[in-house]
TrEMBL record:
Protein name (Swiss-Prot/TrEMBL): Acyl-CoA thioesterase
Alphabetical list of InterPro entries matching this protein: 4-hydroxybenzoyl-CoA_TE, HotDog_dom_sf
Gene3D superfamilies, A to Z: Hotdog Thioesterase
An annotated Gene Ontology molecular function: fatty acyl-CoA hydrolase activity
CDD domains named among the record's database cross-references: 4HBT
Provenance organism: Natronospirillum operosum
SUPFAM superfamilies, per database record: Thioesterase/thiol ester dehydrase-isomerase
Cleavable signal peptide: none
Length: 164
């Protein structure tokens, strides 16, 4: 059975699904990266440093966008508008983690991403994150509209449709 956790974000509350198993986690997020934790990423308290989590989110975000035309488009591209993390349990070396990404909402000028980290050692979700992605016109540096093609690619990857 799935539990839920609510996190406050600038626009209100976001619902994060708590996967009980790795299989549930993998079925929840369409893009997942697997990473072995590095000894050198730990802080003085022997936990993975908080900055490293944002690197994990960045890596899975780029992997997600790489499966769409959001990356490599010379006319426009994604810019990180906001991001945050909720640390539920510390990660420690050694461990293998799975970092998932999905889109939770589409907007005229971008989308909302949700991230989660699943620890094999703890057999549990340890961290949640979210980000607002803004599409920017490469020529003007101003916000650009999310194209119908980009929207369709995201909906195909997510296996659902979005209203915006």
């Amino acid at each position: 059975m799935l539990d839920c956790i609510f996190l406050s974000i600038a626009r209100g509350w976001s619902l994060y699904t708590m996967s009980e198993t790795l299989a549930e986690f993998k079925s929840t997020y369409p893009v997942i990266l697997t990473v072995d934790l590095q000894w050198g990423d730990m802080d003085a308290l022997s936990h993975i440093n908080n900055v490293v989590y944002f690197r994990y989110f960045e890596n899975v975000r780029i992997a997600y966008m790489g499966r769409t035309s959001l990356i490599g488009n010379p006319a426009c591209g994604p810019v990180l508008g906001t991001t945050q993390a909720k640390y539920r349990r510390p990660l420690t070396f050694p461990d293998r983690i799975h970092i998932g990404a999905r889109v939770t909402a589409l907007h005229e000028h971008g989308c909302e991403h949700e991230y989660a980290i699943y620890s094999e050692t703890q057999d549990a979700l340890t961290t949640f994150g979210n980000a607002r992605i803004v599409i920017v016109d490469a020529r003007t540096g101003r916000k650009a509209a999310l194209t119908e093609g980009m929207k369709a690619e995201i909906e195909t990857l997510e296996g659902k449709t979005f209203d915006f």
